[in-house]
């Protein structure tokens, strides 16, 4: 009765209203009710009165969504509770009821008070609570609120360390064990408190030293076996959280391995997989196992590229100097940092939330206003730049030597260097082989071949079977040398091939879209006088064609000349062909020229012969030879199946648990000189990447149908592993193969968001479907267990590589298939396209091709000039011709961004087209185009760099004429134009983007940069024409793949040496852009939900031209110096906030910092990986992958 009377008394003192209304009034803003209660509590010396006030506070704070607790905390209530707790602990004996209610109230208040841990430590409450727990281990009623408070205490790292010193960790283990289903609520809270304590590395080491890792694993096994109805998932999860925190340190990971933790968690997780509600346990177990999986070294002798290129000189302090500065014995594949060991001592972090906020600040935005204004003077004297006048003949041409309305031959502009002459005259022609699978025969026809034999096949004559490209078994065939073969068009030779079956004759009559088959005859077949046969007109190869049989475009079975009844064959051979003696071999070549006006296989081979590569490639890939016809259907983004990544990770973990199941057999290795295809008489796949733009360094057969693939680093580099392009053959039908590319570097990829790899099937091509298609299932991208040394990570320690994994079932037996990161576009393809573009020129088109410079690798960098011929030789027309605004375009500075070349192809084809829009565009502008800024990188299969080992798009501020010739001379062209007051109206550099969807632009804006930073500037400092937004806005209206929302116009410090920023700042081009095209697909517009293809990329290039034409018309209507209504509409759209972090050594692939969220949650099991460094690492990764 006394308690009830006291509560009524206190209520009557404050109000006569109902309790709910009284509570609202006490907690309302401006009310002094809470102050009165707290003052009474602080000054009360009577235990019972104190209890009564605590009861009232408990009732008040139990209502609402936390606002009342916040008011209580703001009035100093937490400190008063700690004062009473300390005072009560000094009583002898202390009141257990008072201790119970104090801890209950503290457990309610603690999570809302950011300074709770510090207040508890300074007041001495930690010792009181621990002592109380120690003395009342059997008193469940008191123990539960004490554990709740201990859990809140431990959320502060310093408190956790202090509690560990007074044996708080050992105390928790006394409470959680042994296994018992009694007091499960108490056990759950105790595990939460223990998990919080073990976040401290000091406490984690204490747990390891006490042997508690085995205790936790034993408890987990007991709960796993006995919790058959899954009613205690939270307890099992709590045990796993404790293990997860212990394994954040190296000693914990070792103890986990020693206690057989990998097997225990793997087996238990496997049993949990069928039950969806147990996913939290599976995910946490997976995270622990991935973390404890011993770090392996990549199976490479060195992280440096397998190819070496000697530079003319190596700048001191540059990346190449650092690369070769290590002593010969230093292992650059793995080092001590790969153990990922943490600092020995924990750090005091009182303000964790404040630190998290600091990581999100963008300190990469340029804040120096002086750097945001264009430079007033150019650095180079005009006399030095006058040599570039020869690249601008159109600015002084008087056309007196031309008949402007005459036939094409009379007014075509002479080429400075035709595509066929883009190879230096001194460059000797070298043997190039027809596309080959470089495979060995299947098991049924064993043909051992030594390493020396493998060497001898390169560049030598081959006697092919009658179905050299039919992929049915036959004796081994070496690569075909096009210098030593003869292609015949003589129909009389047709009888030499075997006759087709009757069924094929019937089908042949139904074929309507013929394809050619090239008859390969040996070079010894000469004319009677010993001379070689005369080259037929139009064929760049010393050979002629022979139409053997038509092939239908669309998949109808085709005529197989000399196939012996087999459906398909390749240089793997054919038994039927072998019986026929191999004379009159037939190479079936789809007549892609009917659908690809810019493609010619023979011309492509000629271009390959003139291309210089570091490895001196002598082979041609089938896809580049046949060509790619874009499918007419759209390919949807791949829907990711639930649990696919987890399943792949478990398969990886099984390698450690069951090592005897792993073959670990090397089947392809570029580090083996002259013979990378390892001799194998088994059923292994055959790999090859020794062709232009190819990249695959090593292939290892891990299981019967699983292969680990290692990519080659960029030449003169030890990183930039992302681009791949390789050939696979020797496959079986009905088998699912798994491919793992194990040394990717980027922290996330669009492969996690619907993107698929690309595959090209030779059998499909010969059947009339020569195209790259998106393929692969079970695709995911995740961090693996291969350590990345600090040497290869630019000094960053504890980094790991990432795995791209996908599964593939092949449709054709012994097919030859190619896989690529994106649609390949080689330098030889570009030269072939430029040569064919000349055929599109009409008398009204002014087209000139110049050689801008020679690259480090000895290749020529083409420069195009495209505009319309003047209407006549009159002075007015010549004046109008010379004074057209200039548009400067460039592409492919990063070799791995092949989509940039496809966009450029669309631009070039539109510019050379016959449409009214194309003609108007040529009449409006003079186009200067460098279609490939990094030919050497493209040729040699680099992902990011040139042969100098540097990212060329980071050299624009001060390019070296010897090491960065294409950038040096391109910048010189722009500097020359600036000197003669003819700076381009628009500069645009085409790029590809690997971690965002859609097509978008980066531009430069003084205002928008200031808006996104803390720069204090007056309105007079921010005078800026808004015209920079017009072109992107036009594109957003006419190009379905373009996204204005993804575009940004902020200038960042890390981009100050990119083309976009340098051209804007130094050349004074307001409309200086980088146009980024996704490698994946679109999430808006007409193409939403689909992967992007070459058709859409080429369309984007054409739409860019249309946007330029509309821009010209806008300029004609309004004075662009005063802004346009369109710009005023656009400027209202807020720019996306850019978040990034300080610059680092490794600029892997410029990704913007406002990326899609990295999906490392339940699926990839990385949500709490290395928690004490997670924020810093994430901020570091964001800048490592910036764009441009």
UniProtKB/TrEMBL annotation:
<feature type="compositionally biased region" description="Basic and acidic residues">
    <location>
        <begin position="483"/>
        <end position="507"/>
    </location>
</feature>
<keyword id="KW-0121">Carboxypeptidase</keyword>
<feature type="compositionally biased region" description="Acidic residues">
    <location>
        <begin position="332"/>
        <end position="356"/>
    </location>
</feature>
<dbReference type="InterPro" id="IPR000834">
    <property type="entry name" value="Peptidase_M14"/>
</dbReference>
<dbReference type="InterPro" id="IPR033852">
    <property type="entry name" value="CBPC1/4"/>
</dbReference>
<dbReference type="GO" id="GO:0004181">
    <property type="term" value="F:metallocarboxypeptidase activity"/>
</dbReference>
<dbReference type="InterPro" id="IPR050821">
    <property type="entry name" value="Cytosolic_carboxypeptidase"/>
</dbReference>
<dbReference type="GO" id="GO:0005739">
    <property type="term" value="C:mitochondrion"/>
</dbReference>
<comment type="similarity">
    <text>Belongs to the peptidase M14 family.</text>
</comment>
<dbReference type="InterPro" id="IPR040626">
    <property type="entry name" value="Pepdidase_M14_N"/>
</dbReference>
<protein>
    <recommendedName>
        <fullName>Cytosolic carboxypeptidase 1</fullName>
        <ecNumber>3.4.17.24</ecNumber>
    </recommendedName>
</protein>
<feature type="active site" description="Proton donor/acceptor">
    <location>
        <position position="1076"/>
    </location>
</feature>
<keyword id="KW-0645">Protease</keyword>
<dbReference type="GO" id="GO:0005634">
    <property type="term" value="C:nucleus"/>
</dbReference>
<keyword id="KW-0482">Metalloprotease</keyword>
<keyword id="KW-0479">Metal-binding</keyword>
<dbReference type="GO" id="GO:0005829">
    <property type="term" value="C:cytosol"/>
</dbReference>
<dbReference type="Pfam" id="PF00246">
    <property type="entry name" value="Peptidase_M14"/>
</dbReference>
<keyword id="KW-0963">Cytoplasm</keyword>
<keyword id="KW-0496">Mitochondrion</keyword>
<keyword id="KW-0862">Zinc</keyword>
<dbReference type="Pfam" id="PF25571">
    <property type="entry name" value="TPR_CCP1_N"/>
</dbReference>
<dbReference type="InterPro" id="IPR016024">
    <property type="entry name" value="ARM-type_fold"/>
</dbReference>
<keyword id="KW-0378">Hydrolase</keyword>
<feature type="region of interest" description="Disordered">
    <location>
        <begin position="406"/>
        <end position="507"/>
    </location>
</feature>
<dbReference type="InterPro" id="IPR011989">
    <property type="entry name" value="ARM-like"/>
</dbReference>
<feature type="region of interest" description="Disordered">
    <location>
        <begin position="325"/>
        <end position="360"/>
    </location>
</feature>
<dbReference type="GO" id="GO:0008270">
    <property type="term" value="F:zinc ion binding"/>
</dbReference>
<feature type="compositionally biased region" description="Low complexity">
    <location>
        <begin position="414"/>
        <end position="442"/>
    </location>
</feature>
<feature type="compositionally biased region" description="Polar residues">
    <location>
        <begin position="448"/>
        <end position="457"/>
    </location>
</feature>
<dbReference type="Pfam" id="PF18027">
    <property type="entry name" value="Pepdidase_M14_N"/>
</dbReference>
<feature type="compositionally biased region" description="Acidic residues">
    <location>
        <begin position="1164"/>
        <end position="1188"/>
    </location>
</feature>
<feature type="domain" description="Peptidase M14">
    <location>
        <begin position="823"/>
        <end position="1112"/>
    </location>
</feature>
<keyword id="KW-0539">Nucleus</keyword>
<dbReference type="GO" id="GO:0006508">
    <property type="term" value="P:proteolysis"/>
</dbReference>
<feature type="region of interest" description="Disordered">
    <location>
        <begin position="1161"/>
        <end position="1188"/>
    </location>
</feature>
